[in-house]
Amino acid sequence: MKEEILSVGIDIGTSTTQLVFSNITIENMASSFSVPRISIVGKEIIYRSDIYFTPILRGKEIDMEKILEIVQKEYIKAGVKKEEISTGAVIITGETARKENANIVLHNLSGFAGDFVVATAGPDLESIISAKGAGADVYSKENNNTVVNIDVGGGTSNIAVFTRGELIDTGCLDIGGRLIKIDVTSKKITYIAPKIKELAEINNININVGDSYSETAVQKIIDEMVKLLEISVGVTKENDFYQRILTKKGIDLNTHINCISFSGGVADYIYKGLEEKDVFKYGDIGILLGRAIKKSLLLSKLTLVNSTETIRATVVGAGSHTTDISGSTITYTEDNFPLKNLPILKLSIEEEKDTSLIADKIIEKLNWFKIEGELQRVAVAINGKKNPSFIEVEEIAQSLLKGMNELIEKDLPLTVIVENDMAKVLGQTLHRYLNYKKNIVCIDGVRVENGDYIDIGKPLVGGQVVPVVIKTLVFN
Protein backbone atom coordinates (compact mmCIF):
# COMPACT_ATOMS: atom_id res chain seq x y z
CA MET A 1 0.00 0.00 0.00
CA LYS A 2 1.37 3.38 -1.04
CA GLU A 3 0.86 6.69 0.71
CA GLU A 4 1.73 10.22 -0.39
CA ILE A 5 2.90 12.89 2.05
CA LEU A 6 3.65 16.57 1.56
CA SER A 7 7.03 17.84 2.68
CA VAL A 8 8.86 21.16 2.79
CA GLY A 9 12.52 22.13 2.97
CA ILE A 10 13.81 25.53 4.06
CA ASP A 11 17.45 26.55 3.57
CA ILE A 12 18.76 29.76 5.13
CA GLY A 13 22.26 30.18 3.72
CA THR A 14 25.02 32.77 3.80
CA SER A 15 23.74 34.40 0.62
CA THR A 16 20.31 33.02 -0.14
CA THR A 17 17.12 31.70 1.42
CA GLN A 18 14.76 29.37 -0.42
CA LEU A 19 12.01 26.77 -0.02
CA VAL A 20 11.04 23.58 -1.83
CA PHE A 21 7.75 21.66 -1.53
CA SER A 22 7.63 18.00 -2.50
CA ASN A 23 5.28 15.06 -2.67
CA ILE A 24 6.96 11.98 -1.23
CA THR A 25 5.57 8.51 -1.85
CA ILE A 26 6.18 5.93 0.86
CA GLU A 27 5.48 2.21 0.79
CA ASN A 28 5.80 -0.82 3.05
CA MET A 29 8.47 -2.86 1.23
CA ALA A 30 8.25 -5.88 3.55
CA SER A 31 6.19 -9.00 2.94
CA SER A 32 2.95 -9.66 4.79
CA PHE A 33 4.72 -11.85 7.33
CA SER A 34 7.63 -9.48 8.10
CA VAL A 35 8.17 -6.49 10.35
CA PRO A 36 7.06 -3.39 8.38
CA ARG A 37 9.80 -1.49 6.56
CA ILE A 38 8.56 1.85 5.23
CA SER A 39 10.69 3.25 2.41
CA ILE A 40 10.63 6.19 0.04
CA VAL A 41 9.73 4.97 -3.44
CA GLY A 42 9.18 8.31 -5.16
CA LYS A 43 9.69 12.04 -4.81
CA GLU A 44 8.36 14.86 -6.93
CA ILE A 45 9.16 18.50 -6.38
CA ILE A 46 5.89 20.39 -6.84
CA TYR A 47 7.02 23.92 -6.01
CA ARG A 48 10.32 25.80 -5.95
CA SER A 49 10.30 29.19 -4.29
CA ASP A 50 11.94 32.33 -5.50
CA ILE A 51 15.52 32.72 -4.31
CA TYR A 52 15.97 35.55 -1.80
CA PHE A 53 19.05 37.22 -0.40
CA THR A 54 19.23 36.16 3.24
CA PRO A 55 18.21 39.20 5.32
CA ILE A 56 20.80 40.11 7.96
CA LEU A 57 20.60 42.86 10.61
CA ARG A 58 23.79 44.79 11.31
CA GLY A 59 25.86 41.82 10.24
CA LYS A 60 25.22 40.03 13.53
CA GLU A 61 21.69 38.67 13.44
CA ILE A 62 19.31 37.03 11.00
CA ASP A 63 16.31 39.28 10.35
CA MET A 64 13.77 36.87 11.78
CA GLU A 65 10.74 38.95 10.80
CA LYS A 66 11.89 39.08 7.16
CA ILE A 67 12.58 35.32 7.14
CA LEU A 68 9.10 34.59 8.51
CA GLU A 69 7.63 36.97 5.95
CA ILE A 70 9.43 35.12 3.13
CA VAL A 71 8.27 31.72 4.39
CA GLN A 72 4.65 32.82 4.84
CA LYS A 73 4.63 34.45 1.40
CA GLU A 74 5.94 31.29 -0.30
CA TYR A 75 3.42 29.07 1.49
CA ILE A 76 0.66 31.26 0.06
CA LYS A 77 2.19 31.21 -3.44
CA ALA A 78 2.52 27.42 -3.30
CA GLY A 79 -1.09 27.10 -2.14
CA VAL A 80 0.01 25.10 0.91
CA LYS A 81 -1.28 25.36 4.47
CA LYS A 82 0.92 24.60 7.47
CA GLU A 83 -1.37 21.85 8.67
CA GLU A 84 -1.01 20.03 5.32
CA ILE A 85 2.71 19.47 5.85
CA SER A 86 3.63 16.03 7.12
CA THR A 87 7.39 16.40 7.29
CA GLY A 88 10.25 18.70 6.41
CA ALA A 89 13.59 20.22 7.33
CA VAL A 90 15.04 23.60 8.23
CA ILE A 91 18.75 24.02 7.63
CA ILE A 92 20.74 27.13 8.59
CA THR A 93 24.12 26.97 6.88
CA GLY A 94 27.42 28.76 6.30
CA GLU A 95 28.09 32.08 7.97
CA THR A 96 24.39 32.36 8.84
CA ALA A 97 24.71 29.41 11.24
CA ARG A 98 27.09 31.55 13.30
CA LYS A 99 24.66 34.42 13.75
CA GLU A 100 23.67 35.24 17.32
CA ASN A 101 19.99 34.33 16.95
CA ALA A 102 20.26 31.26 14.68
CA ASN A 103 18.62 28.91 17.21
CA ILE A 104 15.77 31.35 17.86
CA VAL A 105 15.05 31.51 14.13
CA LEU A 106 15.02 27.70 13.94
CA HIS A 107 12.57 27.54 16.81
CA ASN A 108 10.21 30.00 15.16
CA LEU A 109 10.35 28.25 11.79
CA SER A 110 9.72 24.81 13.24
CA GLY A 111 6.04 25.71 13.53
CA PHE A 112 5.74 25.54 9.76
CA ALA A 113 5.71 21.75 9.65
CA GLY A 114 4.44 18.77 11.55
CA ASP A 115 7.75 17.15 12.41
CA PHE A 116 10.83 19.01 11.27
CA VAL A 117 14.37 17.77 11.16
CA VAL A 118 15.83 20.93 12.66
CA ALA A 119 19.59 21.33 12.44
CA THR A 120 22.14 24.11 12.43
CA ALA A 121 24.67 22.84 9.91
CA GLY A 122 28.32 23.60 10.61
CA PRO A 123 30.84 23.55 7.73
CA ASP A 124 31.39 19.77 7.78
CA LEU A 125 27.71 18.86 7.87
CA GLU A 126 26.96 21.49 5.24
CA SER A 127 29.60 19.88 3.00
CA ILE A 128 27.83 16.53 3.29
CA ILE A 129 24.37 17.99 2.71
CA SER A 130 25.33 20.00 -0.37
CA ALA A 131 27.33 17.12 -1.90
CA LYS A 132 24.39 14.76 -1.52
CA GLY A 133 22.16 17.45 -3.00
CA ALA A 134 24.47 17.58 -6.00
CA GLY A 135 24.33 13.79 -6.35
CA ALA A 136 28.08 13.26 -5.83
CA ASP A 137 27.52 10.26 -3.54
CA VAL A 138 25.24 8.50 -6.03
CA TYR A 139 27.61 9.12 -8.98
CA SER A 140 30.55 7.83 -6.95
CA LYS A 141 28.68 4.65 -6.03
CA GLU A 142 27.30 3.96 -9.50
CA ASN A 143 30.66 4.55 -11.21
CA ASN A 144 32.88 2.97 -8.54
CA ASN A 145 35.16 5.99 -8.27
CA THR A 146 36.08 8.96 -6.08
CA VAL A 147 34.21 12.23 -6.50
CA VAL A 148 34.82 15.55 -4.80
CA ASN A 149 32.02 18.10 -4.66
CA ILE A 150 32.75 21.78 -4.06
CA ASP A 151 29.76 23.83 -2.98
CA VAL A 152 30.78 27.40 -3.75
CA GLY A 153 28.51 29.69 -1.78
CA GLY A 154 28.57 33.30 -0.74
CA GLY A 155 30.96 32.99 2.17
CA THR A 156 32.51 29.53 1.99
CA SER A 157 33.37 26.67 -0.33
CA ASN A 158 32.35 23.36 1.24
CA ILE A 159 34.12 20.20 0.13
CA ALA A 160 33.05 16.57 0.47
CA VAL A 161 34.75 13.47 -0.95
CA PHE A 162 32.94 10.21 -1.70
CA THR A 163 34.55 6.90 -2.67
CA ARG A 164 32.20 4.24 -4.05
CA GLY A 165 29.32 6.06 -2.36
CA GLU A 166 30.99 6.29 1.07
CA LEU A 167 31.80 9.69 2.55
CA ILE A 168 35.54 9.72 3.34
CA ASP A 169 36.41 13.37 4.03
CA THR A 170 35.16 16.94 4.29
CA GLY A 171 36.71 20.39 4.28
CA CYS A 172 35.82 24.04 4.02
CA LEU A 173 37.54 27.19 2.76
CA ASP A 174 36.66 30.83 3.29
CA ILE A 175 36.20 31.40 -0.42
CA GLY A 176 32.89 32.56 -1.87
CA GLY A 177 31.15 34.89 -4.25
CA ARG A 178 30.18 37.54 -1.69
CA LEU A 179 33.54 38.01 -0.01
CA ILE A 180 33.99 41.03 -2.24
CA LYS A 181 30.87 43.17 -2.70
CA ILE A 182 30.48 45.81 -5.40
CA ASP A 183 27.75 48.43 -5.61
CA VAL A 184 25.55 47.63 -8.61
CA THR A 185 25.14 51.29 -9.60
CA SER A 186 28.43 53.02 -8.79
CA LYS A 187 30.60 49.92 -9.31
CA LYS A 188 32.55 50.81 -6.19
CA ILE A 189 33.85 48.15 -3.82
CA THR A 190 31.77 48.18 -0.64
CA TYR A 191 33.20 45.17 1.23
CA ILE A 192 36.28 42.95 1.26
CA ALA A 193 36.42 40.03 3.70
CA PRO A 194 39.45 40.18 6.04
CA LYS A 195 41.08 37.00 4.71
CA ILE A 196 40.64 38.12 1.10
CA LYS A 197 42.21 41.48 1.99
CA GLU A 198 45.18 39.59 3.46
CA LEU A 199 45.41 37.48 0.30
CA ALA A 200 45.51 40.65 -1.81
CA GLU A 201 48.22 42.26 0.31
CA ILE A 202 50.43 39.15 0.23
CA ASN A 203 50.20 39.11 -3.58
CA ASN A 204 50.69 42.90 -3.91
CA ILE A 205 47.22 43.39 -5.34
CA ASN A 206 45.96 46.94 -4.75
CA ILE A 207 42.27 46.58 -3.90
CA ASN A 208 40.44 48.56 -1.22
CA VAL A 209 36.94 49.35 -0.01
CA GLY A 210 35.80 52.55 -1.72
CA ASP A 211 37.82 51.94 -4.88
CA SER A 212 36.08 51.95 -8.23
CA TYR A 213 36.05 48.55 -9.89
CA SER A 214 39.35 47.68 -11.50
CA GLU A 215 39.14 44.67 -13.80
CA THR A 216 42.84 43.95 -13.40
CA ALA A 217 42.88 44.01 -9.60
CA VAL A 218 39.63 42.09 -9.12
CA GLN A 219 40.60 39.42 -11.65
CA LYS A 220 43.98 38.97 -9.98
CA ILE A 221 42.44 38.35 -6.56
CA ILE A 222 39.86 35.95 -8.08
CA ASP A 223 42.69 34.01 -9.75
CA GLU A 224 44.40 33.67 -6.36
CA MET A 225 41.14 32.41 -4.85
CA VAL A 226 40.84 29.80 -7.59
CA LYS A 227 44.44 28.67 -7.01
CA LEU A 228 43.49 27.96 -3.40
CA LEU A 229 40.53 25.87 -4.57
CA GLU A 230 42.92 23.94 -6.84
CA ILE A 231 45.18 23.25 -3.85
CA SER A 232 42.19 22.18 -1.74
CA VAL A 233 41.58 19.08 -3.90
CA GLY A 234 45.23 18.25 -4.58
CA VAL A 235 45.41 19.56 -8.15
CA THR A 236 48.33 21.88 -7.32
CA LYS A 237 50.85 22.03 -4.47
CA GLU A 238 50.11 23.80 -1.21
CA ASN A 239 51.24 27.42 -0.87
CA ASP A 240 51.93 29.53 2.21
CA PHE A 241 48.40 31.00 2.44
CA TYR A 242 46.44 27.75 2.09
CA GLN A 243 46.23 26.92 5.81
CA ARG A 244 45.11 30.49 6.50
CA ILE A 245 42.13 30.27 4.11
CA LEU A 246 40.75 27.07 5.67
CA THR A 247 37.55 27.62 7.66
CA LYS A 248 38.53 24.79 9.98
CA LYS A 249 40.23 22.04 8.03
CA GLY A 250 40.83 20.80 4.51
CA ILE A 251 40.62 17.32 3.02
CA ASP A 252 43.53 14.88 2.93
CA LEU A 253 45.56 16.14 -0.02
CA ASN A 254 46.95 12.62 -0.64
CA THR A 255 43.49 11.33 -1.58
CA HIS A 256 43.35 10.29 -5.21
CA ILE A 257 40.33 11.99 -6.78
CA ASN A 258 38.96 11.10 -10.23
CA CYS A 259 36.01 13.41 -10.67
CA ILE A 260 34.69 16.77 -9.52
CA SER A 261 31.25 18.32 -9.28
CA PHE A 262 30.07 21.75 -8.20
CA SER A 263 27.04 23.14 -6.43
CA GLY A 264 26.03 26.50 -5.00
CA GLY A 265 25.06 29.73 -6.73
CA VAL A 266 28.38 29.98 -8.57
CA ALA A 267 28.00 26.52 -10.15
CA ASP A 268 25.68 27.63 -12.97
CA TYR A 269 28.47 29.82 -14.30
CA ILE A 270 30.81 26.83 -14.27
CA TYR A 271 28.49 24.35 -15.98
CA LYS A 272 26.44 26.57 -18.27
CA GLY A 273 28.89 29.39 -18.93
CA LEU A 274 25.99 31.83 -18.62
CA GLU A 275 26.60 35.18 -20.24
CA GLU A 276 25.68 38.29 -18.28
CA LYS A 277 25.88 41.87 -19.55
CA ASP A 278 26.43 43.06 -15.99
CA VAL A 279 28.75 40.68 -14.15
CA PHE A 280 27.99 42.52 -10.91
CA LYS A 281 24.20 42.18 -11.15
CA TYR A 282 24.20 40.44 -7.76
CA GLY A 283 26.50 43.00 -6.16
CA ASP A 284 29.40 40.57 -5.78
CA ILE A 285 32.13 38.64 -7.65
CA GLY A 286 30.22 35.35 -7.87
CA ILE A 287 29.81 35.40 -11.65
CA LEU A 288 33.48 36.20 -12.25
CA LEU A 289 34.53 33.51 -9.76
CA GLY A 290 32.44 30.91 -11.59
CA ARG A 291 33.95 31.87 -14.94
CA ALA A 292 37.47 31.65 -13.50
CA ILE A 293 36.80 28.18 -12.07
CA LYS A 294 35.52 27.05 -15.48
CA LYS A 295 38.92 27.93 -17.01
CA SER A 296 40.95 26.47 -14.13
CA LEU A 297 42.98 23.30 -13.60
CA LEU A 298 40.05 21.93 -11.59
CA LEU A 299 38.30 21.10 -14.86
CA SER A 300 41.33 20.22 -16.95
CA LYS A 301 42.89 17.86 -14.38
CA LEU A 302 39.70 16.22 -13.11
CA THR A 303 36.65 14.81 -14.92
CA LEU A 304 33.69 17.17 -14.53
CA VAL A 305 30.51 15.45 -13.32
CA ASN A 306 27.13 17.10 -13.83
CA SER A 307 25.30 17.98 -10.62
CA THR A 308 21.65 17.12 -10.15
CA GLU A 309 21.29 20.48 -8.38
CA THR A 310 23.44 23.61 -8.26
CA ILE A 311 22.13 26.62 -6.38
CA ARG A 312 19.41 24.47 -4.75
CA ALA A 313 21.68 21.62 -3.68
CA THR A 314 21.45 22.50 0.00
CA VAL A 315 17.68 22.88 0.00
CA VAL A 316 16.42 19.83 1.74
CA GLY A 317 13.37 18.40 0.00
CA ALA A 318 12.17 16.76 3.20
CA GLY A 319 13.08 15.06 6.41
CA SER A 320 11.70 11.82 5.05
CA HIS A 321 10.54 9.45 7.75
CA THR A 322 11.40 5.80 7.53
CA THR A 323 9.83 3.97 10.43
CA ASP A 324 11.55 0.81 11.58
CA ILE A 325 11.81 -1.52 14.56
CA SER A 326 15.09 -2.20 16.29
CA GLY A 327 16.46 -5.69 16.75
CA SER A 328 15.27 -7.69 19.72
CA THR A 329 18.70 -7.69 21.42
CA ILE A 330 19.01 -4.18 22.74
CA THR A 331 20.28 -2.43 25.85
CA TYR A 332 18.90 0.65 27.55
CA THR A 333 19.66 1.48 31.14
CA GLU A 334 16.87 3.98 31.73
CA ASP A 335 13.52 4.58 30.07
CA ASN A 336 14.13 8.21 29.13
CA PHE A 337 12.49 7.85 25.72
CA PRO A 338 11.60 9.27 23.28
CA LEU A 339 14.94 10.54 22.01
CA LYS A 340 14.39 13.06 19.22
CA ASN A 341 16.46 14.33 16.30
CA LEU A 342 19.80 12.69 17.10
CA PRO A 343 22.25 13.30 14.23
CA ILE A 344 24.17 10.24 13.07
CA LEU A 345 27.96 9.83 13.19
CA LYS A 346 28.54 6.69 11.10
CA LEU A 347 31.81 4.80 10.78
CA SER A 348 32.44 3.02 7.50
CA ILE A 349 33.30 -0.68 7.27
CA GLU A 350 36.87 0.28 6.37
CA GLU A 351 37.18 2.45 9.47
CA GLU A 352 35.99 -0.42 11.67
CA LYS A 353 38.48 -2.98 10.35
CA ASP A 354 41.18 -1.95 12.83
CA THR A 355 39.44 -1.77 16.22
CA SER A 356 42.30 0.27 17.66
CA LEU A 357 41.55 3.11 15.23
CA ILE A 358 37.82 3.38 15.99
CA ALA A 359 38.38 5.91 18.79
CA ASP A 360 40.46 8.22 16.58
CA LYS A 361 37.85 8.13 13.82
CA ILE A 362 35.02 8.99 16.23
CA ILE A 363 37.02 11.86 17.76
CA GLU A 364 37.74 13.20 14.26
CA LYS A 365 34.12 12.95 13.10
CA LEU A 366 32.69 14.50 16.26
CA ASN A 367 34.04 17.78 14.85
CA TRP A 368 31.31 17.58 12.19
CA PHE A 369 28.76 18.22 14.90
CA LYS A 370 30.35 21.24 16.54
CA ILE A 371 29.02 24.75 16.11
CA GLU A 372 31.47 27.40 17.29
CA GLY A 373 33.36 24.68 19.15
CA GLU A 374 30.30 23.39 21.03
CA LEU A 375 29.50 19.71 20.56
CA GLN A 376 25.87 18.79 19.84
CA ARG A 377 24.10 15.56 20.77
CA VAL A 378 25.03 12.72 18.43
CA ALA A 379 24.36 8.99 17.98
CA VAL A 380 27.41 6.91 17.04
CA ALA A 381 26.63 4.22 14.46
CA ILE A 382 28.74 1.21 13.53
CA ASN A 383 28.22 -1.86 11.37
CA GLY A 384 29.49 -4.19 14.10
CA LYS A 385 30.27 -7.88 13.71
CA LYS A 386 27.84 -10.72 12.93
CA ASN A 387 29.22 -13.22 15.42
CA PRO A 388 31.67 -11.36 17.65
CA SER A 389 33.80 -13.11 20.21
CA PHE A 390 33.89 -11.93 23.83
CA ILE A 391 37.31 -10.34 23.26
CA GLU A 392 36.09 -8.51 20.14
CA VAL A 393 33.12 -7.06 22.04
CA GLU A 394 35.46 -5.88 24.80
CA GLU A 395 37.81 -4.23 22.28
CA ILE A 396 34.97 -2.48 20.43
CA ALA A 397 33.45 -1.23 23.70
CA GLN A 398 36.77 0.18 24.91
CA SER A 399 37.38 1.95 21.58
CA LEU A 400 33.86 3.38 21.50
CA LEU A 401 34.17 4.81 25.02
CA LYS A 402 37.56 6.32 24.26
CA GLY A 403 36.16 7.93 21.11
CA MET A 404 33.03 9.17 22.89
CA ASN A 405 34.92 10.58 25.87
CA GLU A 406 33.96 14.17 25.00
CA LEU A 407 30.28 13.17 25.03
CA ILE A 408 30.80 11.55 28.44
CA GLU A 409 32.59 14.59 29.87
CA LYS A 410 29.86 16.95 28.65
CA ASP A 411 27.21 14.63 30.10
CA LEU A 412 25.54 14.21 26.69
CA PRO A 413 23.46 11.06 25.99
CA LEU A 414 25.43 7.97 24.96
CA THR A 415 23.57 6.37 22.08
CA VAL A 416 25.10 3.61 19.95
CA ILE A 417 23.40 2.15 16.88
CA VAL A 418 24.63 -1.16 15.46
CA GLU A 419 23.57 -2.70 12.18
CA ASN A 420 24.47 -6.28 13.11
CA ASP A 421 22.90 -8.23 15.97
CA MET A 422 25.16 -7.45 18.96
CA ALA A 423 23.62 -4.48 20.80
CA LYS A 424 22.66 -6.31 24.00
CA VAL A 425 26.12 -7.63 24.84
CA LEU A 426 27.83 -4.46 23.57
CA GLY A 427 25.52 -2.20 25.57
CA GLN A 428 26.00 -4.25 28.73
CA THR A 429 29.77 -4.14 28.26
CA LEU A 430 29.73 -0.35 27.77
CA HIS A 431 27.62 0.04 30.92
CA ARG A 432 30.00 -2.16 32.93
CA TYR A 433 33.06 -0.16 31.80
CA LEU A 434 31.28 3.01 32.98
CA ASN A 435 30.75 1.42 36.42
CA TYR A 436 26.99 1.44 35.79
CA LYS A 437 26.96 5.21 36.42
CA LYS A 438 26.14 6.47 32.90
CA ASN A 439 22.93 5.81 31.00
CA ILE A 440 23.37 3.91 27.75
CA VAL A 441 21.12 3.25 24.77
CA CYS A 442 22.45 0.61 22.40
CA ILE A 443 20.19 -0.75 19.64
CA ASP A 444 20.77 -2.95 16.62
CA GLY A 445 19.04 -4.08 13.44
CA VAL A 446 19.00 -0.49 12.17
CA ARG A 447 20.85 0.84 9.12
CA VAL A 448 21.66 4.54 9.12
CA GLU A 449 24.04 6.80 7.21
CA ASN A 450 25.89 10.05 7.81
CA GLY A 451 23.45 12.91 7.26
CA ASP A 452 20.54 10.98 8.81
CA TYR A 453 18.74 11.84 12.03
CA ILE A 454 17.04 9.30 14.28
CA ASP A 455 14.14 9.31 16.74
CA ILE A 456 13.92 6.44 19.22
CA GLY A 457 10.54 5.85 20.82
CA LYS A 458 9.39 4.14 23.99
CA PRO A 459 10.11 0.39 24.20
CA LEU A 460 7.49 -2.07 22.91
CA VAL A 461 6.72 -5.77 23.40
CA GLY A 462 7.75 -5.87 27.03
CA GLY A 463 10.79 -3.71 26.38
CA GLN A 464 12.28 -6.07 23.76
CA VAL A 465 12.25 -3.60 20.85
CA VAL A 466 12.04 0.14 20.30
CA PRO A 467 10.40 1.94 17.38
CA VAL A 468 12.82 4.12 15.45
CA VAL A 469 12.24 6.81 12.87
CA ILE A 470 15.17 7.40 10.53
CA LYS A 471 14.95 10.82 8.99
CA THR A 472 16.90 10.81 5.77
CA LEU A 473 17.57 14.16 4.16
CA VAL A 474 16.00 13.75 0.71
CA PHE A 475 17.55 15.53 -2.27
CA ASN A 476 16.37 15.96 -5.80
From TrEMBL:
It comes from the Bacteria. Gene3D superfamilies: 3.30.420.40. This is Ethanolamine utilization protein EutA. Signal peptide: none annotated. InterPro entries: ATPase_NBD, EutA, FtsA/MreB. SUPFAM superfamilies: Actin-like ATPase domain.
